[in-house]
């Protein structure tokens, strides 16, 4: 091995889907520094997917269950396990990595990252006192988004890709050879032997000769994410009746019973493959499909990696903007109920979000995907099937960022406007060298308005009323930030004096504490602005050292950033509100700005049925 090669250790202690979603980051690192060697630290149970990711040079499997086992018998072997863990990590330390990037966000992954004690660390780690330390702007944004999910519209893959940027490195605003975003899809290396294995699994199945093969993934990591088995059954019956399609039902060994509940009522045109496929065989079978219909699972990301169209159903705690299938032309369906998505800390007694997405609604979208081309120039008509449902198509913006575009034209809400504005501002912050927008004119207002394509104009009075409190609170955040800066200046002057005025220092310190408390309470009270406050809070938590002057300078800088971001967010929201409430915009939004229907289903091929047309798929917008 060439010891002069740069070595990067990626720590990822998550599941299959999350691992696949890191592959564009690996490729960005490879393209940025040709010859770099990537070591990938993963839970040993997911080694199989890692072995099919070509960007991984060295797999480092970690026996997580053994390392963290807690039981009466496990305690007896604890000294030996600690010694084994020390030896394992010491062997890794001897590799002398140039950088460590932690893309998982658990305490144990932070502890392992901290063990390497490298200056060049990205992601979650620990400080010298054992407290959480967030060491990269994009990791900080992950935590911001995770705690403010309703207003996040940046995909996890793009957050991962952002870790390829050095702090202070400028990311160009247009795609080119130096731009990491959107340049590549998900990575997965197909196994020729697995294709034979897939053929053997299907060779005696009557449905293998069907003109269309459609995959179902009824399982998911949590009950709240699983569409009901009976809904999959009804959908399968409609797909077979209208398209003569066969159904392949996927799942793990533990999901055999669930897969049987879907497969058995469908008869010979369905096959139960739960527990029968390893990762290579699953990839080979997904590659043969015309469409995969799935809950939010690792299977959907593997399908996207092999370029199979995905119709993703998001329920419970799953949120499409976070983990929707990465690529162009996939489709996502999710509920528009106010309780969606579920909080990670709430146990739902009735999954109304699953009930709102009916088999008929999914059938209509599936029929559209099987019959229409191209995907990027059609809007679905808003009919009875989509009363509490939104349908999105995946796309890429000019700058390469992944985005969901609405396929059903619904009125723009204040939450939509705030989310869209926050997305644009955060993209600008995170791809700027100093992570701060100093000039509001740097926000492209036309690009912002272009994101409103696919939305109807809102009712002006109610929209303005919904925007009033966020705008007022943003103004208050500007005032609090200015007060914080003033008190930091007082504190600095007193601290730098040859005879420090301890009383003045104490007074300024208490005033800063009161300001920070009001800022924090404001975030809890109003989620619409909480992303800015979380950024402020995480920066404050990352402050290290005991030098009062240095800490005060950094604290003042944090207030400066809060003021700039709050001011720009307020001003851009005000501009957006003015544009949305303008009569000319309403006219354009309802007509010219609506994406035109490419063609009627009747002209798109002989597979379309009268029943499919009755779903409203042939109607023009």
Describe the protein:
- This protein is an alpha/beta fold.
- It is 47% helix and 13% strand.
- It has 25 helices and 16 strands.
- The strands form three sheets. It has an eight-stranded mixed β-sheet, sandwiched between helices. Strands 3-2-1-4-5-6 form a six-stranded mixed β-sheet. Strands 15-16 form a two-stranded parallel sheet.
- A hairpin with a 5-residue loop joins strand 13 and strand 14 (402-406).
- Helix 22 packs antiparallel against helix 23.
- The longest helix is centred in the C-terminal third of the chain and has 37 residues, at 460-496.
- It is globular and about 90 Å long.
- The termini are far apart.
Share in helix: 40-55%
* Overall morphology: globular
**Main sheet: strands, sense, barrel:** 8 strands, mixed
Secondary-structure content class? alpha/beta
Oligomer: single chain
Largest sheet: spatial strand order: 9-8-7-10-11-12-13-14
What's the pLDDT, averaged over the residues? 85
The counted number of beta strands is 16
Radius of gyration equals 26 Å
Q: Which residues form runs of ≥5 with pLDDT under 50?
A: 172-177, 586-621
Number of helices: 25
């Amino acid at each position: 091995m060439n010891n002069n090669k740069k070595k990067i250790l990626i720590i990822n202690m998550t599941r299959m889907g999350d691992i696949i979603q890191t592959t564009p980051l690996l490729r960005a690192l490879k393209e940025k520094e040709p010859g770099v060697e990537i070591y990938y630290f993963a839970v040993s149970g997911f080694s199989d997917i890692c072995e099919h990711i070509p960007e991984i040079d060295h797999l480092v499997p970690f026996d997580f269950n053994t390392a963290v086992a807690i039981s009466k018998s496990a305690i007896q072997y604890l000294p030996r396990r600690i010694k084994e863990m020390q030896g394992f990590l010491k062997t890794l330390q001897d590799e002398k990595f140039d950088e460590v990037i932690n893309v998982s966000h658990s305490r144990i992954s932070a502890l392992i990252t901290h063990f390497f004690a490298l200056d060049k660390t990205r992601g979650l780690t620990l400080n010298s006192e054992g407290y959480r330390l967030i060491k990269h702007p994009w990791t900080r944004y992950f935590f911001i988004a995770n705690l403010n999910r309703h207003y996040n519209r940046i995909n996890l893959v793009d957050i991962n890709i952002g870790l390829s940027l050095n702090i202070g490195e400028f990311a160009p605003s247009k795609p080119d050879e130096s731009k990491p975003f959107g340049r590549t899809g998900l990575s997965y290396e197909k196994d020729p032997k697995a294709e034979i294995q897939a053929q053997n699994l299907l060779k005696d199945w009557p449905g293998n000769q069907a003109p269309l093969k459609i995959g179902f993934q009824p399982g998911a990591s949590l009950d709240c994410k699983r569409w009901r088995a009976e809904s999959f059954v009804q959908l399968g019956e409609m797909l077979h009746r209208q398209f003569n399609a066969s159904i392949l039902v996927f799942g793990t060994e533990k999901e055999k019973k669930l897969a049987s509940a879907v497969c058995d009522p469908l008869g010979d045109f369905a096959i139960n493959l739960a527990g029968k496929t390893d990762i290579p065989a699953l990839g080979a079978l997904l590659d043969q499909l015309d469409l995969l219909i799935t809950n939010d699972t690792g299977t959907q990301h593997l399908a996207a990696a092999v370029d199979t169209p995905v119709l993703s159903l998001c329920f419970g705690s799953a949120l499409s903007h976070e983990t929707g299938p990465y690529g162009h032309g996939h489709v996502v369906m999710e509920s528009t109920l106010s309780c969606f998505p579920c909080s990670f800390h709430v146990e739902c007694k009735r999954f109304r979000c699953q009930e709102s997405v009916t088999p008929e609604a999914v059938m209509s979208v599936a029929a559209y995907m099987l019959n229409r081309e191209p995907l990027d120039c059609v809007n679905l008509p808003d009919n009875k099937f989509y009363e509490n449902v939104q349908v999105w198509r995946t796309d890429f913006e000019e700058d390469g960022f992944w985005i969901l575009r609405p396929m059903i034209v619904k009125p723009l809400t204040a939450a939509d406007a705030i989310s869209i504005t926050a997305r644009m501002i955060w993209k600008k912050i995170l791809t700027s060298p100093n992570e701060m927008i100093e000039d509001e004119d740097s926000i492209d207002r036309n690009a912002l308005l272009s994101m409103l394509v696919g939305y109807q104009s809102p009712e002006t009075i109610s929209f303005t009323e919904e925007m009033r409190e966020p705008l007022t609170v943003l103004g208050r955040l500007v005032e609090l930030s200015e007060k914080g800066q003033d008190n930091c200046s007082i504190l600095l002057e007193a601290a730098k004096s040859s005879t420090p005025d301890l009383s003045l220092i104490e007074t300024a310190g208490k005033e800063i504490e009161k300001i920070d408390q009001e800022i924090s309470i404001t975030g809890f009270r109003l989620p619409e602005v909480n992303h800015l406050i979380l950024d402020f809070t995480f920066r404050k938590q990352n402050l290290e050292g005991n030098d009062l002057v240095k800490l005060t300078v950094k604290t003042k800088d944090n207030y400066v950033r809060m003021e700039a971001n709050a001011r720009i967010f307020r001003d851009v929201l005000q501009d957006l509100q003015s544009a949305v409430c303008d009569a000319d915009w309403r006219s354009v939004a309802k007509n010219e700005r609506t994406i035109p229907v490419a063609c009627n289903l009747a002209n798109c091929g002989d597979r379309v049925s009268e029943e499919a047309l009755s779903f409203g798929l042939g109607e023009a917008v």
